[in-house]
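User: Predict the complex.
Assistant: Input components as received:
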Amino acid sequence: MSVAAEISARKAPWWLKRHETLLAIILVLALIGLGAFNERFLTPDNLLNQGRLMTEIGLISLPMTFVIITGGIDLSVGAIVGLCAIMLGYSWKNFGFPLPLAIVFSLFVGALAGFVNGLVITRVKVPPLIMTIATLALYRGLAEGVSQAHSVRGYPEWFYFLGQGSILGVPTQLLILIVLMVVSGVVLDRTTFGRTLYAIGANETAARFSALNVDRAKLIIYTLSGLASGLAAFVLVSRVTTTRMDMGLGYELDVIAAVVLGGASIFGGSGTIWGTAIGLAMIQLLKNGLALTGVKGDATIVVIGAALILSVLVASSLQRRRD
Amino acid sequence: MSATAFAGAASARTGGLRRFASQEALLAVAVISLAVVVGAINPRFLAYRNVADILLGNAYIAIAAIGMSMVIISGNIDISVGSLIGVLATISGSLAVAGAPTFVSWLVPLILGVAVMAAQGAVVAYLRIPSIVVTLGMLSILKGGLISVTGGRWITDLPQSFHLADLNVVGLPMPVVIMVLATALAAIWMRYSPRGRATYATGGNAEAARLCGVDPQRTVVMVFAIHGLFAGIATLVYATQLRVIQSNTPAGLELTVITASVVGGVSILGGVGTVVGSTLAAILIAEITSALVFINVSPYWTDALRGGLILATVIADILRRQRRAAREWKK
Amino acid sequence: MKARYLPTTVAAFALTTWATGASAAGKWDGADDLPTNPLACGAGEAAAPAAAKPYDGGRPTNPPNKAGKEITLVDVPKLIGIGYFNATTKGMQDAAKELGDVKVTTDGPTEAKIDEQIKFIDNYITRGVDGVLFAANDPVAIAPVLKKALSKGIHIVGYDANSTPDAREWFVNQAEFNGIGKAMMDSMAKEIGEDGAFGIVTSTFTTPNQARWIAEMQAYTEKCHPKMKWLETVEAQEDNNLSFNQATTLINKYGDKLKGLFGMTSVATPASAEAVTKAGLCGKVAVVGLATPNAMKPYLKTDCVKSVVLWNPIDLGYAAVYVMRATVDGKLKPGSTSVEAGKLGKLNVVNGSEILLGPPFIYTKENIDKFNF
């Protein structure tokens, strides 16, 4: 069904049929509404700062979009963030690596963790949800075991540039996120690799019979998922100046919320990076806007939950009507 | 595509009997051999008291995993179950403290559990919103709503009659009895009733199921409603075991429950799995947690080991299935 | 079929970690490599008075002069929705009502996550408040956002869990870590004797306060109760049922050897008491721990638990608001040695920029009914 919807959406001349467009409209309306309540909300300062705060989730949501498009899922991302943060801090402080090498090493560990997920998923054919639910426990446990629950602190000043610095007034990490977002968007939209992902999600057996290298594509996206989690760990450690084994706890649900809000179908076959970007911005700005308007944290969570259901409901029912 | 669905539906009835049996057998072997190994290292592990405590303390997870397995078999998932259990426990405890008759404070969480889950099921089935979106949203709503309303105030001074989990039935503790009964009834229902088989069919291929005369939408609502009932029963065991109800949502409970289901052999793609497997898996995971303390694993490494063992079980199960499939193919 | 070897690999990995793990237990150092500082043995509260340290807190940049004027504060605890922080919130509201010119709202994450807490504080900086009260989930990670607040002229006072000193002005210290360590160990020694063996149920090994308390307990045990045997420490998050299960596991594992259980959180202590009750070992296994009174009343009444160590969290919140008011008014400034805190009287400044609430309080059967939180 989702395939049919996807195809008809692509054929349809009317732009309004796209889930992303509808979401973008909802987002703009929400922004204007919240902006009217509080003059501190729609300021460049606040918006850029929100961009800084959402970068970690944003980075992971890019490969997660890929993964979900293929009909898979990666629940271990939060645990990989914790593991990579620990690897960064520990290889620097305890193994005596120079800090730049430690950064590379932790990114490597992230990619490796993702690669292991991908390997078992493609070779042993363990369903992604099961594999990553098991590695979620495993990777978080490794982070605790390696670090013996210790935090690492006292990084040199230059290390904080990524997480706390700005280039031309824009938070450093936000620039990276935007660049990677554009790259991922182009890859998904314009390359054979991107098309392969949609084909896998739409019908994996058919994709195999079409001589697409399904396993290689899957291996790549799970590795990317681990790598992005490693990068998110680097950004996070740099932003908060410390390394803890419980970093990234619960990120998986935040990331998945952004991706599915952005219109990716959890059954595979549909979804875009642009949709994910809008979903991401929507959750972050809604939380921020509500907080600035005086809504407390617990009530904000309720609103976010309702907004998640309602916006997907509105977008999909409008879409169905147009079809 | 439709062939797999029929195979799935059919195997639930007859052909799969052996396959399922051995799937559960693997978990049973794991449960027993772990007990033997750990018991050899530290005999106290096998003391009646400890075995009973492991089952007692984790029965609510196994019970919740039964409903979760059904939901997953129907091709859906529920992330809100942990929050729901937290909310139902609070409501139940508040009623008991407010002086409601005991049976009312036991009955209300069951009814509300069914109502909330059936509503979610209806949104999933009739409004065609993926279950992960609906239940993720509901998780936030329940969690935030609970704290907004209660402020996290603990419920204390529960009346003694409220403590269902303290009762014994023919010498066996109530939570264990409930767990066994719930598993047995659910297993029989899933295997032999038309509606139970409809669940497998829906998860295998909703379109094919519809063509066979199963109403997949109604089936999904029904499965969610039953899941809500089991969540309510799990709440009773969970809430009545201790003297205090925390009035918050137990962190990560949804993942524990889902883990039990998938380790139990329920395929996330829908259509395959049994509830006996999920109960055995819940027991296995609880056993591992306890065993790691008994064999003096450094507490820093327990989580990694538990993760590794869960992974090993899952991989072993899948390899075994593949080897069997290959062998049958040769025949 | 490479995949066939996977389970073997995982099992080998498991064995290796077990081997390395088993040897790694031992010294507790609070997860932050800071030195421990055990108090003197026996009765007598006063340790050698610490040498007066110069003020080491931070200063807000050009704060607006609000002396005597109404101020709006926000309180961001580690998490909302647990008994302990409900009590500190109540204390804050009490103080605000008494003072009349202070408005304070409590808002924070629903789980004790540092990155969530940072977002909350950040939002309140943007929204504009006169002061922020906080209890940190991580002393270092919270520092950048607090410094940002200081740079915008917002006053910062911490309570319960500190940040690095230069990221806030004052910290209201409920009880010094070594004071808790001593109170806990002395209570336990009194109940199970100098050669008793005990286990500990804590939240996680990374929780800053709990990790430090355990480190101080160990240091104090080595110094003052050298014959007591430290059996095992287990993690149980802040989860009632998990704490109960873990306590039960310890009881079953050690049998007669286990004479006492420590609960390190207000969740773990009642759950441990329940585990002892359920095992029918009241009077045989002592439970000592940090807890809030209401949850402990049933166990004190049945004599299953003799003493509960805790400061009064209502007083802690109350003091934090008074300290903030005094800071804004300029009455509490670098160099001050004490501060007036309403009904609590005069509180002393210690360690440069900390205000000490007083020695930890010990609840017993006799006095517990006076408290309701």
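Residues 1-17 of chain B have pLDDT under 50 and may be disordered.
Let me know if you want any component modeled separately.
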